Amino acid sequence: MKDKKPMKSVFKEGAITSEFIGNSIYKHQTKTSIGAHNIFLGQVRADEINGKTVSAIEYTAYEDMANQKFHEIRESAFEKFDLTCMHIYHSLGTVKAGEICLFVFVSSPRRKVVFEALEYIVEAIKADVPVFGKEIFEDESHQWKVNS
């Protein structure tokens, strides 16, 4: 069994940038025990709801509770799967349509593991983490997002 990782905040203010994602991935290229990486990027969609188009989502969270849930998901994934490393980041604040709001990155010696682990992690985040999104429409009206 792997050593337990210390709990850290997974939140980033605003959109998660391609530079941040690239730097996170780049750090792992020198680890020769890794055989596979897998990435999930959650992007804000410009959904049309009741004739109005979503232009952004404003994310809020019960941060302490959410960080604890993210930590539990992380620990559970390390116990279930042969992972070398994992990064999870979620946006807080306003993220515009087309921008990244969730970044999950896993690495393992084996290819099959990263696919299974990533699906497990993303589904657990959607089901268990208290992060809430307020959809902001082009006309500046808003509604609370329904998970989908």
* Secondary-structure element string: EHEEEHEEHEE
Number of β-strand runs: 8
CATH fold name: Aldehyde Oxidoreductase, domain 3
Gap between N and C termini, in Å? Answer: 34 Å
Structural class: alpha+beta
Uncertain runs are: none
Radius of gyration: 16 Å
Mean pLDDT: 92
The CATH superfamily label reads Molybdopterin biosynthesis MoaE subunit
CATH class assignment: Alpha Beta
The helix tally amounts to 3
Subunit structure: Heterotetramer of 2 MoaD subunits and 2 MoaE subunits. Also stable as homodimer. The enzyme changes between these two forms during catalysis.
Protein name: Molybdopterin synthase catalytic subunit
Pfam family, one: MoaE
Enzyme class: transferase
Polypeptide structure, described:
There is one protein chain. This protein has a single domain (11-145), classed as Aldehyde Oxidoreductase, domain 3. It is an alpha+beta fold. The chain is 30% helix and 36% strand. It has helices at residues 18-26, 63-80, 111-128; strands at residues 11-13, 36-43, 48-49, 52-61, 85-96, 100-108, 131-137, 142-144. The mean pLDDT is 92. Strands 1, 2, 3, 4, 5, 6, 7 and 8 form an 8-stranded mixed β-sheet that branches. The chain is built from 3 helices and 8 strands. The termini are far apart.
What labels describe this entry?
EC 2.8.1.12, about 30% helix, alpha+beta, Mopterin_biosynth_MoaE, 3 helices
List the topology elements:
Blueprint lengths: L10 E3 L4 H9 L9 E8 L4 E2 L2 E10 L1 H18 L4 E12 L3 E9 L2 H18 L2 E7 L4 E3 L4
Parallel strand pairs: 1-5
Antiparallel strand pairs: 2-6, 3-4, 4-5, 4-7, 5-6, 7-8
Helix pairs in contact: 2-3
